[in-house]
Structure formats: structure tokens, C-alpha cells
Design brief:
Two copies of one chain form a homodimer. Chain A has 210 residues and is an alpha/beta fold. The first copy, chain A, has eight helices and nine strands. In chain A, the strands form two sheets. The first copy, chain A, has a five-stranded parallel β-sheet with strand order 2-7-1-8-9, with helices on both faces.
Chain lengths: 210, 210
């Protein structure tokens, strides 16, 4: 058995509103139960079916700002007048135990993560087309026509920033996209710079005198 | 349909003699017929079952050195008193046509490839253990005991240089190892720095006025 001292990898998933990040992550986690999902904190109102501690920790603005002052976030961002942030300690603990973590954050937050954790893997999810994105947002029935158009303009801005990400995935067929995300995870596992190569050599030699 | 102007990726596979590079590559190519296998030129004698133009182009030393002087190699190396090299032009042509290429070369050659083609992906194949590697070389029945021991000492030296590679694969079960190599290929396909992101954005907008 080859030993390699691999730490967990942090996968950061971003993409325009309505691209289907939740659907993709749900399917990915079902097939990869060894991956931990990092739950963000936010001050935005829960959507229909969203539960505290499941999709997000829904915090008051006061509570969020208190945590921010104590430096308890890996990243935080303001988006559409709401605050979003990721508590740092639980993530570090998982990664140090060799557990992969996946998180779903906005592009402003993703930049901060990459600055603090160089080894994080940034994945940008794009829709098959803008027309398809618009239709998905419309089906959600949570935004007005005006809000939808603002989302689409925002999507184009985010798409431009997307170029700083490591990988992109086209979210067309969820089943296929999950497989592509799994391939990215597998490949990252095989990266030599993520492991202790001396330990690999030592475990190869084990019980052998050349 | 998202367009991204992706060029082909060059996958360089190395690993100690006897690790089973040929077996792995054969299986990989069978499952991925769209990948081109780059055949190296060498001055070493063909092994049993090896055919000119199939495993290698078997060249005389004179012919090899003439090509070398004309700068016709992407990389070349001397190994165990034999010369090995990869003709450059056919590789460039494939990559520019968007075709992935896989090549099997020694570590000295791999370094030269990475120097010349920064975007090449270097994969290092390791055996599950040194004892297993010895047994595989013995089964080949082409080397004397003395040559086998030299191979094993060489393997340890190469293993150390392996740390400059991008990825490693443990060649235990060929079927699994092929899947891991396929995951690496898939992940590299999704890398944003390999594509034209502006073209992606343009094709997303197609037929849509935000």
C-alpha cells in the first residue's frame, strides 16, 4: 500500500445564479459521501424549502458582523445587499484530516479563498447558453422580470471573472457534469505536488533490499 | 454548443523499466481511439514481438544522429547506451488540430518536453512496490540478473526525479489505472487556461440579447 500523506482538497464551486449549483452539488455528494459540504453563513432570507444548517446558516446581520470582526471567516462577500461567508476552522480541520471539502460561493469569496489557500481548486459552472439560464431562473419563480434581467447582466460580469478559475464545467446534463467533476477530483488526487513524494518512495521500498 | 478553441494536450508517460507502461498505454488507446500515440525513434534493438513503426521507429545510430543535427526532435536522450527521441513536427500538427497525444519517454526526455511545451502534462507511473517491479522485470525474461539489479537501482534514481512530474499513477490493476489516466485527461480538458474563455462567453451569448 502506497502512503503519501495527502491532505484534503478544497473544491470551490461558483457560477451565475440559476446555473444549478445546488442540483449539481447534491448529486455529487450523493455519489461521493466521503466529501464534506461546507455550509456558508448568510444574512439573506431563506428561499422556499431552504433550511437553516442545511443549505446555509441563516444569520442576522449583527451576528454575521460580530463573527467577521473576530476573523472567523475564510472568505466573505456582499451580494445583492446580503452578506455571505464561510467559517474557517471547520474547513481547516477537515482538510488536515485528509477529507475533501466542497463549497459553493460567489466569485468575490472564491478570490479570497484562493489568496488564503493556494491549493484550493476553483471550478466555474456555466450554463449551456444564456437563453437556457434565463429559462431556469424564470422556472424558479422567485424573482421579478426586473430582477431576472439584473441576474443575467450579473451573470455576464461573473462569466468574465470566471477566467481566473482553474476549471470550468458546462451544466447541461447533471449526470455528465457530475462525472466531469469527479474526474477533476480524481485528477487532483493524483497530483504529485499534493503529496509527500519522499513518503511514496519510502513505502515503495518497504520490505525490499535493492 | 459551447465553443472554446481547445488545442490538443500532450500527455507524457514515464516510469521505471518494467512498470508496465506499454500495457497501460495499449489499454488506454483502445478505450480512447481519438488519442494519438506518438512513436519514438530509438537505436536500441527490438525486443521480442516489437515491430518497427509500431512500438518504435528502430533507427541506426547514423540516421538518428543526422536527424538530431537537423533539429528534428522534440526531445532525445541516451539511456543504457541507446538513443531515444521524438520527432517534433507530427506532434505539433496533431496538437494544433485539437488532437490529444500520448507519449512514453524516459525522464531525461520528459524534462526537455516540459521545457519546450509548457502545457504538456507529465504523468509518472509507479509500481505498487519494488518487489513487484522486480518480479515483473524477471517475468519479461530479457535481462540477466545483473541487468535486473541495474534496472532496480535505476528505478530508485528515476523515482526521485519523478517529483518534478505533474501526476503520478500507481500501476496495480491496469483497468483502474486506465480510469485514473482518463480522469486526468478529462480534468485537463476542463482547464480554463487551456481554452479561449472569450470564445466561451461569445458562444454563451449566441442568439440572446440581454
Amino acid at each position: 500500500m502506497i502512503e503519501c500523506d495527502k491532505k484534503g482538497t478544497l473544491f470551490v464551486l461558483s457560477g451565475p445564479s440559476g446555473v444549478g449549483k445546488n442540483t449539481l452539488i447534491d448529486q455529487f455528494l450523493k455519489r461521493n459521501p466521503d466529501v464534506h459540504y461546507s455550509i456558508s453563513a448568510t444574512t439573506r432570507r431563506p428561499r422556499k424549502h431552504e433550511k437553516d444548517g442545511s443549505n446555509y446558516y441563516f444569520l442576522t446581520e449583527e451576528k454575521f458582523k460580530a463573527m467577521l470582526e473576530r476573523g472567523e471567516f475564510l472568505e466573505w462577500a456582499e451580494f445583492c445587499n446580503n452578506l455571505y461567508g464561510t467559517p474557517l476552522k471547520p474547513i481547516e480541520k477537515m482538510l488536515n484530516s485528509g477529507i475533501d471539502v466542497v463549497m459553493d460561493i460567489e466569485i468575490q469569496g472564491a478570490k479570497q479563498v484562493k489568496d488564503k489557500l493556494k491549493e484550493a481548486v476553483l471550478v466555474f459552472l456555466i450554463p449551456p447558453s444564456l437563453a437556457e439560464l434565463k429559462s431556469r431562473i424564470q422556472n424558479r419563480q422567485t424573482e421579478t422580470e426586473q430582477e431576472i434581467n439584473a441576474r443575467l447582466r450579473q451573470a455576464l460580469v461573473e462569466m468574465d471573472v470566471g477566467r481566473m478559475y482553474d476549471y470550468y464545467l458546462v451544466h447541461d446534463n447533471t449526470e455528465n457534469t457530475v462525472l466531469e467533476l469527479e474526474a477533476i477530483r480524481q485528477a487532483e488526487t493524483q497530483k504529485i505536488r499534493r503529496i509527500n513524494w519522499d513518503k511514496v518512495i519510502d513505502s515503495l521500498k518497504e520490505g525490499f533490499n535493492a
